[in-house]
Design goal:
Order of helices and strands: EEH
Shape: elongated
Strand order of the largest sheet: 1-2
Radius of gyration: 9 Å
Number of strands: 2
Number of helices: 1
Helix content: 25-40%
Number of domains: 1
Strand content: 15-25%
Largest sheet: 2 strands, antiparallel
Length: 29
């Protein structure tokens, strides 16, 4: 599971943190 602010890879390592929720949402599109 990915939380709202953090992406994780399959191993559960943090891939990227998101300071901007709009950036996060755009990346999901």
């Amino acid at each position: 599971m990915l939380d709202y602010w953090t992406e994780q890879d399959a191993d559960g390592n943090v891939v990227r943190t998101h300071n901007d929720p709009c950036e996060y949402l755009l990346k999901m599109l």
